[in-house]
Amino acid sequence: MLISASDRERIAAAIGAAEKRTSGEIVAVVAASSASYVSVAPLLAALLALLVPWPLIYFTWWPVQDIYYLQLAVFVIAASIIYYPPVRLALVPASIKRDRAHKRAVEQFLAQNLYTTDGHTGVLIFLSAAERYAEIIADRNIYKQVPQEEWQAMVDRLTSRIGDGVAADGLVEAITATGDLLSKHFPPGLSNPNELPNHLIVID
């Protein structure tokens, strides 16, 4: 399990502590995967099966029906192997995985109502485990104050911690750093209401 129950409590506490120092709102979301990529198995298996007849046609005297049966067998076996999630994920190009994970992050920014916060100071810290992808999305008023380079540096540190096998520690550090950053530009108001939930949101 990427994030344990005790890790979730630590993350929720980190969000609460960070939000006490700013009028901004921080939401953390962890997705097991940003897409199923189920189409990869039949597509790659079909391409492999299409290659089977050519050397047999040119270099053997096999009957056409035997070649056809072999082609079907190759498709079924290849599709079964590629359908296994780790294999399927490994065969998906990195650019496609990044694109799917980015789209999932944007969806979560909208789904968690971060764009509706008072003052438009919501921040999403998004992590997609299968793709080993992290992204921080901030609402428009924050982007006016905080350069993208600072967010990217935080993302780089977070992905490094994920690679080290301590994703929960990385999330706590990213949340704390986000609170530090927001407190400089968006200090807490007199009431400082908690507009969004502090608990970690986990999507299977």
Cα distance spanning the termini: 11 Å
Class of secondary structure makeup: alpha/beta
For the residues shown, what is the average pLDDT?
89
- For the record, the count of structural domains works out to 2
Portion in beta strands:
5-15%
Instruction: List SSEs in N-to-C order.
Output: HEHHHHHEEHHHE
- Major β-sheet strand ordering: 3-2-1-4
Query: Under the CATH scheme, which class of the largest domain?
Result: Alpha Beta
- The CATH architecture name of the largest domain reads Roll
Shape: elongated
Helical stretch tally: 9
Q: Specify the helix fraction band.
A: 55-70%
Main sheet: strands, sense, barrel: 4 strands, mixed
Radius of gyration: 23 Å
User: What is the fold named in CATH at topology level of the largest domain?
Assistant: Diaminopimelate Epimerase, Chain A, domain 1
Tell me the total number of β-strands: 4
Uncertain regions: pLDDT < 50 for 5+ in a row? Answer: none
